[in-house]
Structures are given as structure tokens and as C-alpha cells.
Amino acid sequence: MPKGASPYAGPGAEARARLAAEILVKRLPDLKLRIDLIGVTSLFGDDAGRLLAARVPSDARDVRLRVAARHDHREAAERLAQEVTALYTCGPAGGGGVRTAVRPRAFHCLVLRAARCP
Predict the structure, then answer these.
(1) How far is CA 110 from CA 16, 77, 113, in A?
(2) Judging by DSSP bridges, how do beta strands 2-9 and 99-102 pair with one another?
(3) pLDDT (0 to 100) of residue 26
(4) Could you report the per-residue pLDDT of 84-96, keeping only the tens digit for each?
(5) Does residue 19 contact residue 92 with C-beta atoms inside 8 Å?
(6) Which has more pLDDT, 107 or 35?
(7) What are residue 116's phi and psi, to 5 degrees?
(8) Which residues lie across from 7 on neighbouring strands?
(9) Angle between helices 74-90 and 13-27 in degrees, nearest 10
(10) What DSSP string runs through 51-111?
């Protein structure tokens, strides 16, 4: 599961973080992205981004863009990390750094004892 984050601070921070999120959505149409704006909405956000889209932009001045995706092929997943890194130099002004990671996602499942032991 790839993920990346980039903080924005100061006047217009939320607007710049939203712009960065829009850029990623347009540049990565083959990935289903989960976007959170930490400092605006993250805990109650949904994977489809409906809460964030419905929320009227405010004047939050300390916002961290966090984006995650899931893909079956590592090469496609690594594109997210590359695009988030590119935002640092080619994205909205005032990005305060970048953090990325690409790791396998662990899935949990319940196996009934009867199904496992004859």
C-alpha cells in the first residue's frame, strides 16, 4: 500500500493542500486514492472522499495532505510515491516536505476451526 504526505502552512494552506490532492487525482487516474487533509478532516473521512468534497473550504493554516492507495502491482503503487515527491518541487507553493512509503498491506481474516481441522 503506497502512501504519501506533504504539509502546508500559512495563509491558504487548505486551498493549496486541496489543489495538491486534485493534481494527484488527475495524474493517477488508475489508482483509487484515499485523501485526507489532516487538520481539516481525517478521522471521520471516508475512502470515497465524500465528506471532504462536501466540506466547505475554510481558512485552516496548518494542513497535512495524506494520500494512500491500494493496487495489485507494486510498480503502479510506486507511482503514487513518485507523484507526491514531485509535488514538493512542482506542486502548490509552500509544501513543507514530503514523506512516502510503499509497503505490502496485511489482510486479516477469520478461519473457523471446523474449516481448518478435519
Answers:
(1) 42, 27, 9
(2) antiparallel
(3) 92
(4) 888 888 878 877 7
(5) yes
(6) 35
(7) -95, -35
(8) 64
(9) 140
(10) HHHHSPP---SEEEEEEEEE-SSHHHHHHHHHHHHHHHHHSSTTB---EEEE-PPP-----
Do the Cβ atoms of 3 and 85 come closer than 8 Å? no
C-alpha cell recorded at residue 14: 487548505
Contact, 69 vs 34, CB < 8 A? yes
Q: Give the integer Cα–Cα distance in Å for 27 and 92.
A: 15
Residue 33's contacts (CB-CB under 8 Å, 6 or more residues apart) are: 24, 25, 49, 67, 68, 69, 80
What is the dihedral sign for C-alpha 68, 69, 74, 80? negative
Asked whether the beta carbons of 95 and 46 are under 8 A apart, the reply is no
Q: Is 34 helix (H, G, I), strand (E, B) or coil?
A: strand
Q: What is the pLDDT of residues 22-70, one digit of tens each?
A: 998 999 898 888 888 888 776 666 666 666 666 767 777 778 888 888 7
Residue pair 70/32 in contact (Cβ under 8 Å)? The answer is: yes
Alpha-carbon distance of 37 to 20, in angstroms, equals 11
